[in-house]
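User: Design a sequence. Structure:
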């Protein structure tokens, strides 16, 4: 046999470079899909409580377990109602969307002062009138909403301000829909329903400064290797005389902004105590507010804000009805 040159696959994915820390802890939604039925909100927000498991009847026709009872790991997200405190409209420019104007509710909650300095007096009627005068320029209508962590098992008072798009109808109808919600609260069941798919946007769990073995999955070298074992043996050629960005190096791992697609809603409930395990979720506590059970895992640690969005690229086949749940585990997670 002749000599065969050794080859090996690339260690680690270059799809998410640079692997730096996220700019802020609250996830940012850069793309809002379009929907045909509306007007409707395209997103919501909640807090990750932890994970548990349940049994449900598999309803995907092409699954080998179709019609059988299967066990599934689920993520519990506590999602108290969000308060609509403002309306913001956008116009299209040569450089993308640009905010045209906004209107705020008359008496916003005092906790909002923890985010920014509140004006002494909000005049929503005058602001809405200005928006209606420029309605022919408006391309998008979005709601400025604040979360209510005091209703969840979150030990903080400072809410998060999140922007949610209104879509599914002409601009005039979308604005009227937004005006009807200004100053009111919106529940999770008014935005999503059981059985549908959603996208999750969040900042992943931070792991600090890690070496190339953990960060990129490179192989540990032979124990008699010179200088290093948990590193890359050759970090590049003489020419070009620099280390290429494709070479696995040590650095920040985790606390990255991530969007995960098509997480199925298995259940939406009102009383979180019915799914809280004995002794509560570890490092979270008892779920009191409305909640949602998502199939599989989502980014981030417990207490992290998870933003939910109408799916940007939904699967082609979606079961018409919600899956039938048989049992949700309430066993203690503390042994």
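Assistant: Done.
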């Amino acid at each position: 046999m002749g000599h065969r040159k050794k080859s090996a696959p690339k260690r680690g994915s270059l799809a998410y470079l640079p692997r730096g820390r996220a700019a802020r802890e609250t996830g940012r939604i850069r793309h809002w899909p379009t929907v045909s039925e509306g007007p409707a909100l395209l997103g919501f927000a909640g807090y990750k409580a932890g994970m548990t498991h349940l049994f449900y009847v598999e309803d995907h026709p092409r699954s080998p377990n179709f019609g059988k009872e299967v066990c599934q790991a689920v993520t519990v997200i506590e999602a108290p109602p969000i308060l609509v405190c403002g309306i913001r409209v956008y116009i299209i420019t040569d450089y993308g969307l640009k905010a045209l104007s906004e209107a705020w509710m008359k008496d916003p909650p005092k906790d909002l002062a923890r985010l920014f300095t509140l004006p002494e007096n909000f005049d929503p009627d005058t602001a809405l009138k200005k928006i209606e005068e420029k309605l022919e320029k408006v391309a998008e209508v979005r709601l400025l909403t604040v979360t209510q962590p005091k209703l969840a098992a979150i030990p903080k008072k400072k809410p998060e301000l999140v922007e949610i798009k209104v879509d599914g109808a002409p601009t005039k109808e979308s604005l009227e829909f937004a005006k009807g919600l200004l100053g009111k609260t919106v529940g999770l069941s008014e935005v999503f329903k059981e059985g549908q798919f959603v996208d999750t946007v969040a900042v992943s769990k931070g792991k600090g400064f890690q070496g190339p073995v953990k960060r990129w999955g490179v192989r540990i070298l032979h124990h008699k290797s010179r200088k290093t074992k948990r590193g890359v043996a050759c970090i590049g050629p003489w020419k070009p005389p620099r280390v290429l960005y494709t070479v696995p190096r040590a650095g920040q791992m985790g606390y990255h902004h991530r969007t995960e697609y098509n997480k199925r809603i298995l259940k939406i409930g009102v009383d979180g105590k019915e799914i809280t395990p004995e002794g509560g979720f570890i490092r979270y506590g008892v779920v009191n507010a409305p909640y949602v059970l998502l199939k599989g895992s989502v980014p981030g640690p417990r207490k992290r804000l998870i933003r939910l969005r109408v799916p940007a690229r939904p699967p082609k086949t979606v079961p018409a009805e919600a899956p039938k749940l048989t049992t949700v585990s309430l066993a203690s997670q503390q042994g």
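The mean pLDDT is 94. The first strand starts at residue 40 and ends at 41.
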